[in-house]
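Title: Prediction job returns without error message
Component: structure pipeline
Severity: low
Priority: P3
Assignee: unassigned

Description:
Job completed but the reporter wants confirmation the result is attached to the right record. Sequence as submitted:
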Amino acid sequence: QVQLVESGGGLVQAGGSLRLSCAASGRTVSSYGMGWFRQAPGKEREFVAAVSWSGGNTYYVGSVKGRFTISRDNVKNTVYLQMNSLKVEDTAVYYCAAGHFMGWPTVSRPSNYNYWGQGTQVTVSS
């Protein structure tokens, strides 16, 4: 079993930055792809970014490309999401997930992720 715990969320003004962390425990996630999803009130869960097990491949939804950066540290069993130039529409609960995928489109499907964190709230004010 893998337990995932997100941290780093909070309230920030538009144009600001936040760095989310997802710490894994219980079992190493070095063989898993890692992803970040988000869910805004009244909306479906949306894929944000993912990184392959090696860190060699990264994937982003178009709306965050160039603003967000996903990375991982397999020694620390942690994945990060650096979010810059935040917009009001980035407001959501952000979830970390671990799973197996083979590029697009599987990387964006929640069904390809086996383990999920509890989420961390990100609120961007205007």
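Comment from assignee: result matches the submitted record. Residues 48 and 61 are 5 Å apart (CA to CA).
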